[in-house]
Amino acid sequence: MRINRSTFARTAPAALGGLLSGYAALAAAELVSVAVRPEAGPVTAVGGAAIDRTPPAVKDWAIRHFGTDDKLVLQLGILAVLGLLAVALGLLARRHRRTGAAGVLLFGAVGGAAALTRPDSTGPADVLPSLAGALAGAGLLYLLTGLLTAPRPEPAPGGADRSRRVFLYAAGATALTATAAGALGRRLGASRGRDAAATRGAVRLPAPASPAAALPRGASLRIPGISPFTTPNADFYRVDTALVVPRLSADTWRLRIHGRGVARPRTYTYADLLGRDLIERDITLTCVSNEVGGPYAGTARWLGVPLAGLLREAGVRPPSQGGPADQLVARSTDGMTLGSPVEEVMDGRDALLAVGMNGEPLPFEHGFPVRMLVPGLYGYVSACKWIQDIELTTFDAYDPYWVKRKWARRAPVKTQARIDTPKPFARLRTGPVAVAGVAWAQHRGIDRVEVRVDEGPWEQADLAAEDSADTWRQWSYPWRAAPGGHTLTVRATDRTGTVQTEERTRTIPDGASGRHSVVVSVD
Fold first, then answer.
1. Sign of CA dihedral 207, 209, 215, 217
2. Phi and psi dihedrals of 302, rounded to 5?
């Protein structure tokens, strides 16, 4: 295809002007968002609004294919779309200068509306980053387009070249200024983050009044490829909707407990929680978005305050004891709401407001200063990160974030087993092969794990020692591999006698079910 040089010479500068104006708009918005709050920036606000409006099946697909990079993919997608729109507005402004500039203002209004309507919005100031960006972008587009379309005296030898040079000088100045503004915004934002990090670094976690028992001998198998019993913080899965990880100060953090059946509403500081009797427990968490055999499960040693005790101090009674509230709604600083059944939270299990994870204060990505967790329930109904509010209510009166998006109100973790080694499509040698993995059924415990080769009989695997019913359990099966292709399948049975079902279901609405299998070849 032949490109008309004259057409390209006319349109390329206009497209460049649109792209630079969009770049400057985002840089200005980022700089202003530092003074307001990072979550109010247009990319973050629009991205959050997109997440909120994305159908559950699409979210599930994104987590399945992109894992913890799903937010990065979304942000890159938003930037790509904004880039294309900026080019389009630049071309439009070449013919209709005011209309192109008005288009930039319109997109600024969209960003401002998204920021203002986010669940974590703090008020009208949230529109300022998008407004500032829109004004900067519209003004620059109007200016740059004017340099391209301004009439020139005739004849003026070299005039066309001078006109082009003036535009290029202005474009270069725009690019440099926008880059400087963006860099300044990131530097100031990082400075705010360092202040929060300093409060985390100053935390000295007290010794637990009730420490976790030492890991039983034989609970951690030394088999290459098997998941370690305790998941390191850096490897622990992260699934949430926060495009910007909240970096909260422990000094200013507060937690409010209120609602139906709360006779004595309470507000706690971080120091208040650290001053209480803390307990330490090994607990396995599982995300409801975890596919059969998926990676979104992990075990950590958590340190925290028993949640049931705080509720009782506030006068809360579970429904079985006449309490009027059957749902506990936890609210995060990023606007997320999770609903947990009060009965399960107060039935004696180790439901926690956690302050520590594997011997250190919670990482920011995992909820610092405080997060909630309830053994035996999927994370979307129990594991509120960056928690700041607990309201007692009923399931009939309020639908939390995920329930509004067609996920189940109640979601106990399903009994599951996973093959960690060998990996799918592995090529193995004939002879002894260690098949191994983990199984979980939090708050019920794992009683048995079985492995089947192809369509043969189920053979019992060797179970590692159990740490507690709230943690996963490692297992191994000594397989004498014969030549050929084989399918290895695993199933678990929990302490209630429930055998892991073979029926495959999606993660929506209450977690995936089915049996994990891997296909291998043996030479």
1. positive
2. -100, 145
Helices (H), 117-250: 128-149, 159-201
Angle between helix 70-95 and 128-149 (nearest 10): 40
Q: Cα–chain-centroid distance for residue 141?
A: 36
CB atoms within 10 A of CB 150: 10
Taking CA atoms, 422 is separated from 1, 219, 282, 430, 434, in Å, by 51, 20, 27, 13, 8
For CA atoms 403, 70, 298, 432, the dihedral sign is: positive
User: Do strands 517-522 and 431-440 pair parallel, antiparallel, or not at all (unpaired)?
Assistant: unpaired
Looking at this protein, which amino acid is placed at residue 505?
Answer: T
Give the SS3 label for residue 223: coil
pLDDT at 265 over 80: yes
Q: Tell me, what DSSP letter sits at residue 412?
A: B
- CA 449 to CA 488: how far, in whole Å? 13
Tokens of 322: 């006449």
pLDDT in tens, 292-314: 999 999 999 999 999 999 999 99
User: What does pTM read for this prediction?
Assistant: 0.86
